[in-house]
Design a protein that fits this description.
9 strands, Luciferase-like domain-containing protein, Luciferase-like_dom, Luciferase-like_sf, single chain, Bact_Lucif_Oxidored, alpha/beta, 12 helices, globular, oxidoreductase activity, acting on paired donors, with incorporation or reduction of molecular oxygen, 338 residues, TIM Barrel
């Protein structure tokens, strides 16, 4: 696809709970980050639904989004995403309809289908792990019908007439194809499934059908990006992310470790190889290194937008990373958000 210059940049925020801090600290940091992101010109600030993870405080996106919207004025705020099978569509229609009514034109509703947690917690959320009960297309149709007011005898108030900007999220071609068939924008989780990115985006574009919401395909990719003044400093603050993901995949999730804690680990060769593979999918380095990496990724994928997630231990390092990236890849002003 032709390269049209730097894509608009956004923020994906998991409200990380760093070792030595509390979930309340993490949530206050999210509010601070949203205000910085708005001033820096980022287009969107999304939060992700996760459960039973001590290092992630964004378990209730609608509640956090309400606070994010209240301390900002132009940036889009939303979910990246709400895991629809964890909820009844009517509840999501009422929650996000209320957000849209309070903050018109600024609310994004990104929908995913994974539970965002382990199987035991998924059962606590859903009470039914039968795959047949996770019918995302049916749930999505019901959700949109509540926003449209087309379900007999049930009115979502607020909700009806207050539909936020709707996105589908995914890490495979299932949601890519569904987003294309419904004519919706699509956000792909490149940050943890980079090997599937090109194939999923191709499926999305080939299956796209114009709709009242969107005339042409519009794809965003999530990217792990960590920027510091030098390549060495960026690698130092990025290393704990590998340890955190290793612990998660080993069934030992915890708070987000510090660089010193990560450096003190004595990993087996297999563990170190796992961490190296995880970090290899990130864009890490000085402003010039990150700029080159993001522009290459955009050109390779044809992404219309890029959403950056920066998981580091120190909140000041996270703010600094977003500042440096915005400085070398001028973010589109939030007031121009679609």
């Amino acid at each position: 696809m032709p390269f049209a210059g730097p894509a608009p940049l956004s923020v994906l925020d998991l409200a990380p709970v760093s070792t030595g801090s509390t979930p309340a600290d993490a949530l206050r940091n999210s509010l601070d980050l949203a205000q910085h992101a708005e001033r820096l010109g980022y287009r969107r600030h999304w939060v992700a639904e996760h459960h039973n993870m001590p290092g992630i405080a964004s378990s209730a996106p609608a509640v956090l989004i309400a606070h994010l919207a209240s301390v900002t004025s132009t940036i889009h705020v939303g979910s990246g995403g709400v895991m629809l099978p964890n909820h009844q569509p009517l509840v999501i229609a009422e929650q996000f309809g209320m957000l849209e009514a309070l903050h018109p034109g600024r609310i994004d509703l990104g929908i995913g289908r994974a539970p965002g947690t382990d199987q035991i917690t998924a059962y606590a959320l859903r009470r039914n792990l039968d795959p047949a009960s996770e019918d995302l297309p049916t749930q999505l149709r019901e959700l949109r019908a509540f926003f449209a007011g087309s379900i007999p005898r049930i009115r979502a108030t607020p909700g009806e007439g207050y539909e936020p900007e709707l996105w589908l999220l995914g890490s495979s071609d299932f949601s890519a194809r569904l987003a294309g068939e419904l004519g919706l924008p699509f956000s792909f989780a490149h940050h943890f499934m980079p090997q599937n990115t090109l194939a999923a985006l191709d499926v999305y574009r080939r299956s796209f059908q114009p709709s009242p919401a969107l005339e042409a395909p519009h794809a965003m990719i999530g990217v792990q990006a960590i920027c510091a003044d030098t390549d060495e400093q960026a690698r130092w603050i990025a290393t704990p992310g590998g340890l955190s993901f290793l612990r998660l995949r080993s069934g030992r999730p915890g708070t987000f470790p510090s660089p010193e804690e990560a450096a003190a680990q004595n990993h087996t060769p297999a563990e170190q190889a796992f961490i190296d593979r995880w970090l290899a999918g990130h864009v890490i380095g000085s402003p010039q290194t990150v700029r080159d990496g993001l522009l290459e990724l955009q050109a390779r994928t044809g992404a219309d937008e890029m959403m950056l997630t920066t998981m580091v231990h120190d909140h000041a390092d996270r703010i600094r990373s977003y500042e440096l990236v915005a400085g070398v890849l001028a973010a589109a002003p939030a007031s121009q958000a679609a």
